[in-house]
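The following record pairs a protein chain with its ligand, fe (ii) ion.
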Amino acid sequence: MLTPQENVSGDPEAAAQGFGRVTTEQPPDFDPQSEFEAAYGFFEKNGFVVLRQCLKSDEIKHLNEFFDRTQAERPESWGLSDKRKPHHRNQGLIFSQPLLDYPELDDYTQHPSSLPMVSRILGGEDRVRFSEFNFRETPAHAGRGTMNFHHDAVTRDRLIRQPYLPCDWLCAIHYLSDVGADAPSFCVVAQSNRYSTLRDAFDDLGEKYQEIPLRGKAGTCILYDTATFHTRLDGDGVQARRTWHQYYARGGWLPSSLPTTSRYVRPPSPVLTDWNLFPKRLALHPDPKKRLFFSHWNTAQCEWVASGFDLQLRQSMPRGEQ
Ligand SMILES: [Fe+2]
């Protein structure tokens, strides 16, 4: 019997990263406007979808320049200094909360290329909520990593509720550098969002079980249901990769059903983390639609708001450095 510590590929290097049934074929990618319905249909079936050319060349340039600038300006926020914090260990470089101090990023939070599909998946424009925004980099010559397949946040009702969609959280990963065959790639197991373990997905999906490394040019956007099993698959250990990760949650109350009850109302998704903070200009935005978008506050945020967004309080929190 195979376990995720064994694999069908025969490659012992692949053992820690799933069952090793890695496909060489790429799933279709979609134009987010002209192929909108087909893209939604693909997501509905598979728990992820690839949208092509979601960033303009000047946006890719701006974000790469932002990486270069902030890595030089504040290396400790990227884990580049001697004082590496727990969230900087074992996963390359990450700048966890760039929105706190950089209003130049605000427009990206509701990007016009991907937002219509995000809205469709989460049940409508008025149900989309912000959760988290970060930048990551696998530097050149980083070697091979150790990330295993996992899902992100989930709710228990996902395994039985009807209908399944809208999902609870959605993550958008934008490639900011080209991801070819030898680069570290985001890798998903299609249709695995309906299973509690990767083992269950492997057993039940049978021949349909595939680990799919997603290649794409800079500007590619991958949307995935956070319940979908995924990992960062190692490349050759030489090539670099830059990505922007944004998580969305579902807001509002939704009628639904469970097998044991005729009626069930799904509450808004819980908060994604207990540490993520939204800056004053976004949390208390003058536009009520923006305030609603940034309305999923955790208790750390509540305390920070009550303090009048006190800088010292923020800096006492994990990842709150300035
Ligand atoms: Fe993850």
